[in-house]
Automatic annotation (TrEMBL):
InterPro entries named in the record: CO_DH_flav_C, CO_DH_flav_C_dom_sf, Diverse_Substr_Oxidored, FAD-bd_PCMH, FAD-bd_PCMH-like_sf, FAD-bd_PCMH_sub1, FAD-bd_PCMH_sub2, Mopterin_DH_FAD-bd
Protein name: Xanthine dehydrogenase family protein subunit M
Domain FAD-binding PCMH-type: from-to ranges: 1-224
SMART domains: CO_deh_flav_C
PROSITE patterns (alphabetical): FAD_PCMH (PS51387)
UniProt keyword annotations, A-Z: Oxidoreductase
PANTHER family: OXIDOREDUCTASE, XANTHINE DEHYDROGENASE SUBUNIT C-RELATED
Coiled-coil positions: none
Keyword Oxidoreductase tagged: yes
Keyword Heme: no
Length: 332
């Protein structure tokens, strides 16, 4: 492992000043469950890390001004078990419970989860494999290679890596925002604008500027968030990333027709994926196995499968359909 400096600021202003002074050479360190992994295998090579894991300003969960507010340094397990999250945002709570393992959830944070990097084996595999994300312009070993876990939505000719996180999928469905602090002051970024599509710059994964930290996540309370669920399909029931996931919410009128619905997908796309067209397909119609499946098909429209991952097109559609029926309490 390459030597690096370790900074442990006492508070948020100190952390921001240390990051500002270090510029591109430093990375924030939260729980370290992704960052240290990537440093050990030489994929991340910062000159310094700034430890924000114990900053008091970032560790909180609560309710303020009609919103759920979760500090970026809050451990995943604490946020998942908070009564307001479980009662009013079941999809958010479930997305956290179904991520990683209990040990990881006790250590890993909300901010680190949102900005975790892809699990593409070529990205993590190092020098023998060309990878535009790790080494811009070198090519992409996954395209035409072993792509069974890779994305089918939002892919580009330069990168097909799946966004691996669960939480961001639930957050994008319910219009969450992140508050950010940095050298130019504070600003707010909708979750829908936090992650980038790979395009021809797959090494640029998010829209934060150098030296910026996510300080908290805010999610508006709504009836639809209360009627939500998160369904994750994975190779085993624990400790595995999603092959496909869906965060959905459904509100129905007196006649059973869909008044409003939210659909977001994970495991199949290069970034957290909101399926607004699919949401529109259901509006004003009864929710049945057929209409839910139609919404699933629309959600997967535009999918671009490769060698081994065509199964994700069907799996994604089925996952959306099943999640909708579960959210509406009418699963088969
Ligand atoms: C075996 C294994 C299985 C896993 N399974 C799942 C799973 O099923 N679902 C899932 O969602 N995740 C899964 N994960 C990923 C895990 O959830 C992440 O490693 C974790 O959430 C990262 O949080 P952290 O606090 O440890 O972040 P770190 O590793 O400390 O940081 C991750 C990245 O975020 C940046 N960062 C951290 N905090 C901030 C901030 N506040 N502002 C700006 N940048 C920040 C860091 O610089 C770094 O680039 C798994 C991980 C492992 C090792
Ligand atoms: S899919 Fe993306 S991360 Fe994986 S090898 Fe290709 S460029 Fe690298």
């Amino acid at each position: 492992m390459r030597p690096f400096d370790y900074h442990r600021p006492e508070n948020l202003p100190q952390a921001l000043a240390t990051l500002r002074d270090a510029g591109d050479a430093a990375l924030p360190l939260a729980g370290g469950t992704t960052l240290y992994d990537l440093m050990k295998i030489g994929v991340e090579t910062p000159d310094a890390v700034v430890d924000i894991h114990r900053l008091p300003e970032l560790d909180h969960v609560g309710v303020a001004g009609g919103e759920l507010v979760i500090g970026a340094g809050t451990r995943m397990a604490r946020a998942a078990a908070h009564p307001a999250v479980m009662r009013d945002f079941p999809a958010v709570s479930q997305s956290l419970w179904r991520a990683a393992s209990q040990q990881l959830r006790n250590m890993a944070t909300i901010g680190g989860n949102l900005l975790q990097r892809t699990r593409c084996t070529y990205f993590r595999g190092g020098a023998p494999f060309p990878c535009n994300k790790r080494d811009p312009g070198s090519g992409c070993a996954a395209i035409g290679g072993r792509d069974g876990g890779h994305a089918v939505l939002g892919v580009s000719d330069d990168c097909i890596a799946t966004y691996p996180g669960d939480l961001a999928v639930a957050l994008i469905a319910f219009d969450a925002v992140v508050d950010v602090a940095g050298p130019a002051g504070a600003r707010t970024v909708p979750i829908a604008e936090l992650h980038r599509s790979p395009g021809d710059t797959p090494h640029l994964e998010h829209t934060l500027n150098p030296g910026e930290l996510i300080t908290r996540v805010r999610v508006p309370f709504s009836d639809i968030a209360r009627e939500s669920t998160f369904l994750k399909v994975r190779p085993r029931e624990s400790y595995a990333f999603a092959l496909a996931s869906a965060a959905v919410g459904v509100l129905r009128g007196f006649d059973g027709e869909v008044r409003e619905c939210r659909i977001a997908l994970g495991g199949v796309a290069t970034r957290p994926w909101r399926a607004t067209e699919a949401e529109r397909v259901l509006a004003g119609r009864p929710l049945t196995a057929e209409s839910a499946r139609e919404a699933g098909d629309v959600a997967m429209r535009g999918a671009r499968p490769g060698r081994d991952n065509a199964y994700k097109v069907e799996l994604g559609a089925r996952t959306v359909a099943e999640a909708l029926l579960r959210a509406a309490g009418s699963e088969r």
